Amino acid sequence: QVQFVESGGGLVQPGGSLRLSCVASETISSIYRMGWYRQAPGKQRELVATITTGGITTYTGSLKGRFTISRDNAKNTVYLQLSSLKPEDTAVYYCNSLPPVGAYWGQGTQVTVSS
Description:
Oligomer: single chain
Largest sheet: 6 strands, mixed
Structural class: mainly beta
Mean pLDDT: 95
Number of helices: 0
Low-confidence stretches: none
Shape: globular
């Protein structure tokens, strides 16, 4: 049973940046496509970015290039670089496979964008 531990969130002012990390308990090289998801208060989780084992990435178009996903298979880690953050980016951020596996959801890491 793979477990993901997300970290790196926090309180940041609009326009600021954060780097989120997702460390897996098992090798992620066996997971072809990993994703970062987020869930804002009162809303469902949404997919924000994905990356394949080989480094092919996709992003939610509304993010306008502000997020960058990367992975280090040797470190069993997936990263999400957040930049030019806006209040509407406030959410709990999670990592999981794509499609997500219910048992893989971790606690996420809170990102709060506020002045």
